From TrEMBL:
One of the protein's GO biological processes: enzyme-directed rRNA pseudouridine synthesis
EC annotation from Swiss-Prot or TrEMBL: 5.4.99.-
Molecular function (Gene Ontology), one example: RNA binding
Stated family: Belongs to the pseudouridine synthase RsuA family.
Enzyme kind, highest EC tier: isomerase
Classification via InterPro entries: PsdUridine_s_RsuA/RluB/E/F_cat, PsdUridine_synth_cat_dom_sf, PsdUridine_synth_RsuA/RluA, PsdUridine_synth_RsuA/RluB/E/F, PsdUridine_synth_RsuA/RluB_CS, RsuA_PseudoU_synthase, S4_RNA-bd, S4_RNA-bd_sf
PANTHER family documented for this protein: PSEUDOURIDINE SYNTHASE FAMILY PROTEIN-RELATED (PTHR47683), RNA-BINDING S4 DOMAIN-CONTAINING PROTEIN (PTHR47683:SF2)
This protein's name: Pseudouridine synthase
Protein backbone atom coordinates (compact mmCIF):
# COMPACT_ATOMS: atom_id res chain seq x y z
CA UNK A 1 0.00 0.00 0.00
CA UNK A 2 2.83 2.36 0.81
CA UNK A 3 4.55 1.57 -2.47
CA UNK A 4 1.27 2.18 -4.31
CA UNK A 5 1.18 5.67 -2.81
CA UNK A 6 -1.98 5.16 -0.76
CA UNK A 7 -0.48 6.33 2.52
CA UNK A 8 2.57 6.00 4.71
CA UNK A 9 3.28 2.62 6.25
CA UNK A 10 1.72 3.57 9.59
CA UNK A 11 -1.37 5.11 7.99
CA UNK A 12 -1.73 2.03 5.80
CA UNK A 13 -1.79 -0.15 8.91
CA UNK A 14 -4.58 1.98 10.34
CA UNK A 15 -6.59 1.61 7.12
CA UNK A 16 -6.21 -2.17 7.29
CA UNK A 17 -7.31 -2.41 10.93
CA UNK A 18 -10.29 -0.14 10.20
CA UNK A 19 -11.53 -2.50 7.47
CA UNK A 20 -10.85 -0.35 4.42
CA UNK A 21 -8.73 -2.99 2.65
CA UNK A 22 -9.82 -6.04 0.66
CA UNK A 23 -7.72 -8.88 -0.74
CA UNK A 24 -9.45 -10.82 -3.50
CA UNK A 25 -12.76 -9.31 -2.44
CA UNK A 26 -12.42 -10.22 1.25
CA UNK A 27 -12.05 -7.56 3.94
CA UNK A 28 -8.72 -7.89 5.78
CA UNK A 29 -8.31 -6.38 9.26
CA UNK A 30 -5.21 -8.25 10.44
CA UNK A 31 -1.72 -6.87 9.87
CA UNK A 32 0.96 -8.98 8.21
CA UNK A 33 -1.24 -10.76 5.64
CA UNK A 34 0.96 -11.91 2.75
CA UNK A 35 -0.07 -11.09 -0.80
CA UNK A 36 1.47 -11.91 -4.18
CA UNK A 37 1.38 -10.26 -7.59
CA UNK A 38 -1.55 -12.52 -8.43
CA UNK A 39 -3.74 -11.14 -5.61
CA UNK A 40 -6.18 -8.28 -6.11
CA UNK A 41 -5.84 -5.63 -3.41
CA UNK A 42 -8.21 -2.67 -3.05
CA UNK A 43 -8.70 0.21 -0.64
CA UNK A 44 -12.31 1.39 -0.31
CA UNK A 45 -12.99 -0.75 -3.40
CA UNK A 46 -10.40 1.10 -5.48
CA UNK A 47 -7.90 -1.42 -6.95
CA UNK A 48 -4.21 -0.84 -6.22
CA UNK A 49 -1.45 -0.92 -8.76
CA UNK A 50 2.18 -0.71 -7.75
CA UNK A 51 3.66 2.67 -8.60
CA UNK A 52 7.19 3.28 -9.69
CA UNK A 53 9.14 4.34 -6.62
CA UNK A 54 10.42 7.90 -6.80
CA UNK A 55 12.77 9.90 -4.59
CA UNK A 56 13.29 13.65 -4.38
CA UNK A 57 15.52 16.07 -2.48
CA UNK A 58 14.02 19.49 -1.70
CA UNK A 59 15.65 22.62 -0.30
CA UNK A 60 12.64 23.61 1.80
CA UNK A 61 11.97 27.36 2.07
CA UNK A 62 10.45 29.13 5.08
CA UNK A 63 6.69 29.38 5.40
CA UNK A 64 5.95 25.93 4.00
CA UNK A 65 4.61 22.98 6.01
CA UNK A 66 6.21 19.52 5.82
CA UNK A 67 3.12 17.51 5.01
CA UNK A 68 1.17 16.37 1.97
CA UNK A 69 -2.02 18.22 2.99
CA UNK A 70 -2.71 21.09 5.38
CA UNK A 71 -6.14 21.71 6.89
CA UNK A 72 -5.28 25.39 7.36
CA UNK A 73 -4.70 25.86 3.64
CA UNK A 74 -1.01 26.65 3.95
CA UNK A 75 1.43 25.79 1.19
CA UNK A 76 2.97 22.33 1.63
CA UNK A 77 6.26 20.84 0.48
CA UNK A 78 4.30 18.61 -1.90
CA UNK A 79 2.75 21.71 -3.53
CA UNK A 80 6.24 22.77 -4.60
CA UNK A 81 6.64 19.59 -6.69
CA UNK A 82 3.03 18.97 -7.68
CA UNK A 83 3.21 20.48 -11.18
CA UNK A 84 6.10 18.19 -12.16
CA UNK A 85 5.44 14.99 -10.17
CA UNK A 86 2.48 12.75 -11.00
CA UNK A 87 2.90 10.20 -8.22
CA UNK A 88 1.61 10.65 -4.67
CA UNK A 89 4.67 11.50 -2.59
CA UNK A 90 5.09 12.59 1.01
CA UNK A 91 7.93 13.98 3.14
CA UNK A 92 10.35 11.78 5.08
CA UNK A 93 10.06 13.26 8.57
CA UNK A 94 9.42 16.96 9.05
CA UNK A 95 11.00 20.37 9.20
CA UNK A 96 9.25 23.12 11.13
CA UNK A 97 7.23 25.79 9.30
CA UNK A 98 10.01 28.33 9.79
CA UNK A 99 12.92 25.90 9.31
CA UNK A 100 14.67 25.66 5.94
CA UNK A 101 16.85 23.06 4.30
CA UNK A 102 17.15 19.50 3.14
CA UNK A 103 13.99 17.40 3.08
CA UNK A 104 13.44 14.09 1.30
CA UNK A 105 10.14 13.18 -0.36
CA UNK A 106 9.17 9.77 -1.72
CA UNK A 107 6.42 7.22 -2.22
CA UNK A 108 8.65 4.46 -0.80
CA UNK A 109 6.95 3.86 2.54
CA UNK A 110 9.39 1.18 3.69
CA UNK A 111 12.47 3.36 3.17
CA UNK A 112 10.75 6.42 4.70
CA UNK A 113 9.86 4.41 7.79
CA UNK A 114 13.42 3.16 8.24
CA UNK A 115 15.05 6.55 7.65
CA UNK A 116 12.93 8.14 10.37
CA UNK A 117 13.42 5.33 12.90
CA UNK A 118 16.02 6.35 15.53
CA UNK A 119 17.59 2.87 15.72
CA UNK A 120 19.17 3.36 12.28
CA UNK A 121 20.99 6.49 13.52
CA UNK A 122 21.01 8.47 10.28
CA UNK A 123 22.87 11.73 10.93
CA UNK A 124 21.13 15.03 10.21
CA UNK A 125 23.18 18.24 10.40
CA UNK A 126 21.63 21.62 11.21
CA UNK A 127 23.00 25.15 11.29
CA UNK A 128 21.33 27.35 13.91
CA UNK A 129 21.60 31.06 14.55
CA UNK A 130 20.91 31.56 18.25
CA UNK A 131 20.65 34.37 20.74
CA UNK A 132 23.61 34.77 23.08
CA UNK A 133 27.20 33.61 22.95
CA UNK A 134 27.47 29.82 22.97
CA UNK A 135 30.25 28.59 25.25
CA UNK A 136 32.38 25.46 25.23
CA UNK A 137 30.42 24.32 28.28
CA UNK A 138 27.18 24.66 26.30
CA UNK A 139 28.65 22.52 23.53
CA UNK A 140 29.81 19.93 26.06
CA UNK A 141 26.29 19.63 27.47
CA UNK A 142 24.86 19.09 23.97
CA UNK A 143 27.50 16.45 23.24
CA UNK A 144 26.65 14.58 26.44
CA UNK A 145 22.89 14.95 25.99
CA UNK A 146 20.34 17.33 27.55
CA UNK A 147 16.87 16.82 28.98
CA UNK A 148 14.12 17.50 26.45
CA UNK A 149 10.48 16.76 27.31
CA UNK A 150 11.53 14.56 30.22
CA UNK A 151 14.02 12.45 28.24
CA UNK A 152 17.73 12.86 27.70
CA UNK A 153 18.80 13.36 24.11
CA UNK A 154 21.40 11.19 22.46
CA UNK A 155 24.88 12.77 22.23
CA UNK A 156 25.16 15.38 19.50
CA UNK A 157 28.10 16.59 17.44
CA UNK A 158 28.51 20.36 17.76
CA UNK A 159 30.69 23.15 16.39
CA UNK A 160 30.63 26.94 16.56
CA UNK A 161 31.03 28.48 13.10
CA UNK A 162 30.55 32.18 13.85
CA UNK A 163 30.19 34.56 16.81
CA UNK A 164 28.84 38.10 16.58
CA UNK A 165 29.93 39.82 19.79
CA UNK A 166 28.17 43.04 18.85
CA UNK A 167 24.77 41.48 18.20
CA UNK A 168 25.31 38.78 20.83
CA UNK A 169 24.46 35.92 18.48
CA UNK A 170 26.17 32.65 17.60
CA UNK A 171 25.96 30.33 14.63
CA UNK A 172 26.37 26.72 15.72
CA UNK A 173 26.35 23.45 13.79
CA UNK A 174 24.51 20.55 15.42
CA UNK A 175 24.42 16.95 14.18
CA UNK A 176 21.87 14.49 15.62
CA UNK A 177 20.33 11.19 14.56
CA UNK A 178 17.11 11.46 16.54
CA UNK A 179 14.01 13.16 15.17
CA UNK A 180 11.89 14.37 18.05
CA UNK A 181 9.48 17.28 17.67
CA UNK A 182 11.37 20.63 17.52
CA UNK A 183 14.38 18.75 18.89
CA UNK A 184 17.25 21.03 17.87
CA UNK A 185 15.39 24.14 19.02
CA UNK A 186 14.62 22.53 22.37
CA UNK A 187 18.17 21.27 22.82
CA UNK A 188 19.64 24.72 22.28
CA UNK A 189 17.02 26.29 24.51
CA UNK A 190 17.94 23.76 27.21
CA UNK A 191 21.45 25.25 27.30
CA UNK A 192 20.11 28.81 27.35
CA UNK A 193 19.97 29.82 23.69
CA UNK A 194 16.80 30.66 21.76
CA UNK A 195 16.96 29.74 18.07
CA UNK A 196 16.53 32.65 15.66
CA UNK A 197 16.98 30.69 12.42
CA UNK A 198 17.38 26.98 11.71
CA UNK A 199 18.55 25.26 8.54
CA UNK A 200 19.18 21.57 7.81
CA UNK A 201 22.24 21.36 5.59
CA UNK A 202 22.67 17.60 5.27
CA UNK A 203 20.87 14.28 5.69
CA UNK A 204 23.26 11.35 5.94
CA UNK A 205 25.63 11.77 3.00
CA UNK A 206 23.21 14.02 1.08
CA UNK A 207 23.78 17.79 0.89
CA UNK A 208 22.09 20.75 -0.80
CA UNK A 209 24.95 21.32 -3.26
CA UNK A 210 23.49 22.74 -6.47
CA UNK A 211 19.93 23.02 -5.08
CA UNK A 212 18.90 26.62 -4.26
CA UNK A 213 16.21 27.43 -1.72
CA UNK A 214 12.75 26.36 -2.89
CA UNK A 215 14.20 24.09 -5.60
CA UNK A 216 14.44 20.30 -5.81
CA UNK A 217 16.00 17.45 -7.75
CA UNK A 218 15.48 13.73 -8.22
CA UNK A 219 17.82 11.44 -6.32
CA UNK A 220 20.18 9.40 -8.44
CA UNK A 221 19.88 5.61 -8.36
CA UNK A 222 23.24 5.35 -6.61
CA UNK A 223 22.02 7.76 -3.91
CA UNK A 224 18.89 5.71 -3.31
CA UNK A 225 21.04 2.58 -2.94
CA UNK A 226 23.27 4.39 -0.44
CA UNK A 227 20.22 5.48 1.59
CA UNK A 228 19.05 1.88 1.75
CA UNK A 229 22.49 0.80 2.91
CA UNK A 230 22.26 3.28 5.80
Amino acid sequence: MAEAGVASRRQSEKLIVAGHVKVNGNVITELGVKVSNNDNVSVDDVPLSRQRLEYYLLNKPRGVVSTAHDDKGRKTVVDILVDDVDTRIYPVGRLDYDTTGLLLLTNDGDLANKLTHPKYEVDKTYVAKVQGIVTNDDLKQLRLGVMVDGRKTKPAKTKITNVDQKKKTTIVQVTIHEGRNHQVKKMLKAVGHEVIKLHRESYGFLTLAGVPGGQWRKLRTSEVMQLKEL
